[in-house]
């Protein structure tokens, strides 16, 4: 198991370094530079390029960037003078995280519950309703669903606030909107795996012996059906994190997603690279933790891992 974990950590580090390299190359491939302005004096522009090391050859810039990255330095923002990128991330990410973990919790809990209900009520009204909700949740993008839910529940009905404040109630609508796609995906997957488990011989044997359905579902069905769902929670969290960029702008959340959008329009390349890499690390770590958790709870994975070594 230790070798399995170390292997996953090694792959994660390699992936992060590759993403850092690709992000750097993409930023350098863009035309112009952050200080390209016809109204700016050439002397001032040259001074700024020297300050941020942008006058160096690209190869030297890359080596400097990777060296700083290894030491935890994401550089200085070009827009926010003398403000480190890491400081901007540190101050703005907590709001994004508060939104993200709520969305993940809602989508996981309600997705699993809806999937179980749909499977137990197979080909009945409840099943068809949940399937319809899942199709809508998966097919309609958050950039469309966000404004619709904000208008209907916030403006039209007035049930929920459409802007995020310090109250828990204000977090409900953006969190639910952010997690809706994941909820729909988890519900469909849980329904499918539950139906598969319900058709297994040992479940049918339990029913034939007169065991209560609730006992069978709780003790046997859920435990086995939820395993594939656990394996997709990492990528699902990745979808939620990247989706927060859109939702934060819709619901006026002053989180990291709002900064990310502005850095692209302002050509703040160091901030764009820093936030992109931060998101990448967050996603990779979440997937890594899910892989490790899956390996701990699934003995088959441990056996296959040993067999492959």
From TrEMBL:
Residues 93-294 form the ABC transmembrane type-1 domain. It comes from the Bacteria. GO terms for biological process: transmembrane transport. Pfam families: BPD_transp_1, BPD_transp_1_N. InterPro entries: BPD_transp_1_N, MetI-like, MetI-like_sf. It is a multi-pass membrane protein. GO terms for cellular component: plasma membrane. The chain crosses the membrane at residues 9-30, 103-121, 128-152, 172-190, 225-247, 277-297. Its main location: membrane. Coiled coil: none annotated. Keywords: Cell membrane, Membrane, Transmembrane, Transmembrane helix, Transport. It is found in: Cell membrane. Belongs to the binding-protein-dependent transport system permease family. This is Peptide ABC transporter permease.
């Amino acid at each position: 198991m230790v070798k399995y974990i170390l292997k996953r950590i090694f792959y994660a580090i390699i992936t992060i370094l590759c993403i850092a390299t690709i992000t750097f190359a993409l930023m350098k491939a863009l035309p112009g530079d952050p200080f390209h302005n016809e109204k700016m004096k050439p002397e001032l522009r040259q001074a700024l390029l020297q300050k941020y090391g942008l006058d160096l050859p690209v190869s030297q810039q890359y080596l400097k960037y990777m060296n700083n990255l290894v030491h935890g330095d994401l550089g200085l923002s070009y827009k926010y003078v003398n403000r480190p990128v890491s400081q901007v991330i540190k101050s703005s990410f907590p709001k994004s995280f508060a939104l993200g973990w709520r969305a993940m919790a809602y989508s996981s809990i309600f997705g699993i519950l809806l999937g179980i209900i749909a499977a137990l009520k197979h080909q009945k009204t409840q099943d068809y309703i949940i399937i319809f909700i899942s199709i809508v949740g998966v097919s309609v993008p958050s950039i469309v669903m966000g404004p619709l839910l904000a208008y209907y529940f916030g403006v039209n009905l007035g049930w929920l606030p459409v802007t995020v404040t310090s109250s828990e109630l204000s977090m409900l609508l953006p969190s639910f909107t952010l997690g809706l796609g994941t909820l729909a995906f988890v519900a469909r997957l849980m329904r499918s795996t539950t139906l598969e488990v319900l058709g297994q011989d040992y479940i049918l044997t339990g029913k034939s012996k007169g065991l209560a359905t609730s006992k069978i579902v709780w003790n046997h069905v859920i435990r086995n059906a939820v395993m594939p769902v656990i394996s997709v929670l990492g990528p699902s969290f990745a979808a939620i994190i990247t989706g927060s960029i859109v939702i934060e702008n819709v619901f006026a959340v002053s989180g990291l997603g709002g900064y990310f959008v502005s850095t692209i329009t302002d050509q703040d390349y160091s901030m764009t690279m820093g936030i992109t890499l931060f998101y990448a690390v967050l996603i990779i770590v979440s997937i890594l933790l899910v892989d490790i958790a899956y390996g701990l709870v699934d003995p088959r994975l441990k056996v296959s891992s040993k067999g492959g070594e």
